[in-house]
Predict the structure.
Amino acid sequence: MKSITELEELRKKALEKMGVRANTDGYRIVVGMATCGIAAGARPVMNSFMEELQKREIKNASVTMTGCVGVCRLEPIVEVIDPSGNKTTYVKMTSEKAVRIVAEHIVNGRVCLDYTIGYEDKK
Amino acid sequence: MQIYRAHVLVCGGTGCVASSSEKLMSEFDTHLNNNNLASEVKIVKTGCFGLCARGPVVVVYPEGCMYTMVNVEDVKEIVEEHLLKGRIVTRLLETGQNSEGIETSLDGVEFFKKQLRIALRNCGVINPELIEEYIAFDGYKALAKVLTEMTPGEVVDTIKKSGLRGRGGGGFPSGLKWEFTAKAQDDQKYVCCNADEGDPGAFMDRSVLEGDPHSVIEAMAIAGYAVGANQGYIYIRAEYPIAVKRLNIAIEQAKQYGLLGNNIFGTNFSFDLEIRLGAGAFVCGEETALMTSIEGKRGEPRPRPPFPAIKGLWNKPTLLNNVETYANIPPIINKGAEWFASIGTEKSKGTKVFAVGGNINNTGLVEVPMGTTLREVVYEIGGGIPNGKTFKAAQTGGPSGGCIPASHLDVPIDYDSLIQLGSMMGSGGLIVMDEDTCMVDIAKFFLEFTVDESCGKCPPCRIGTKRMLEILERITDGKGTEGDITKLEILAKNIKAAALCGLGQTAPNPILSTLHYFKDEYLAHVNDRKCPAGVCKSMMQYVISAEKCKSCGLCVKACPVGCISGEKKVPYVIDNDKCVKCGACMEKCPFKAIFKNA
């Protein structure tokens, strides 16, 4: 890194890639992979997402990981960020739930309400 | 192999077959043939989509449209409209939205509303293994600003003005520490990061390193520039393998981008970073012991002064901060000292991360502005106590801290208020305890930890804590005497005054604070041979209520030592001489006829 300009260019490129801006299309599936998440079974969940996306040849979605979201009791936690930036937080995830989220949310843009954090909290 | 322009996936799962997906397939066949599409469109029978309640389900690719509750009559429309003319049949599309008023994102949930995330700003947001994502969220901007626009003195001043205090436990003003190290004269200086998180129940530092390792790396480089060091060490326990792995990846990536190494941002400043693994000894979190361990020696503390800022690693001036302290640095540089100083209370600025655990609904990681009350953390963010039980106390500061009773629930959480209550902020473990917790037992638990972890260098800690533990064991065994409590108090005060390092000096704190707020429990153990919470096994008995017992015999099956006896229609009894007090009978009893008699 030689200059601030270089850093700024890198930042812009990275932002675009992450789909934080509205002009990019595609879903971002973010799996919490801190110790709490992994202990609760985040790894098979992430694998199911990848397998399912591959199986269905879905090109407009990416799977990525992140650290502890904070609500460790609800791990594994997966956040799905849609192309316009809306965030859905799915909790207590399993491989089976991942399959359904790909079919309903990623393919059809329909949030699986019964897996969301708000639904879990109302239980 | 033939290439089709479209795939029609019909669910062949049990649920959908039951709702006639088989018929749908043949119907599709017919209509595709009628329209001469059979060679262009392929019908695929798939496994379950998981949406059985709305079956039968049909998905059409490449659009990926999901049609639900498809009737045989709808097939003609799908084929003629969608497959022939390319118009999606919106009528059948599954797009139902949030109609039930359920919060779908974490941001809208009560848990997050009272929080303010500075140290955790990127945790759960970015991919920790991709430096680009950190950079996308203003990463390394603070380092660039410091190197190209500020003098080292200005950096130290900014940290001083921000009012940031060490998040590792002591709460020493960070800016002052930076200033001392910067002023020390030597040809070589070091910057260290304490990632040896050992408090029972604490995991803030691990979470920061796992979720946002670059924020610590960036902050250490800034610190290196400010104090005049070109070498940094992160001391982390080997029990944190994921954090270690991600740190290694992060350091490697920072080096590739030239954010670590020589002439960073084209300036004269060079900075390198290495990881040192600790074996997870509690004492190695103490600053002098930590540095001794980095030097390759047995991790034992040494007397201070001289302080690390004057003589630290290899007797060179060394700046040592905790992970969370460092994580606050880049935002302070980016947003300014005034911004940071405007958050929190008069003497405790910014936010604090807590690992909330114990008898609380929302266990997890919480970051709140200093001055947030304990009640807000426990009830509003933590969601209160499970199973309708009442709050008894909160333990903060780990083995160096103490308990805060329910009467002080409205205490604003900051360094000084907690010390006034005989507890401390510590690194940020917050263990909530309900009415079923025995406070003597809690004190014993923390003492057991200190005795195990004492490095043994100084007698007050090595011998004194062991003696205190023996007294506590006597009391919880129901063999305590009146004099034991007095002895405990004298020992505790002497160890506090005489121990060599901070760990020994604070080891009696759990005893002193429980004695202060819950002396009646100690007295009940000693005088009445009773444990009011029903925890201490020697003083507790399981009893079967003759009225409630239905003689079902489930408890007999559950009992591992066969101490329960009885016959049909006669209430069962427990032979308390044989009973091992495992509680299995109480758990199994469907009539709640078995209870603890404290």
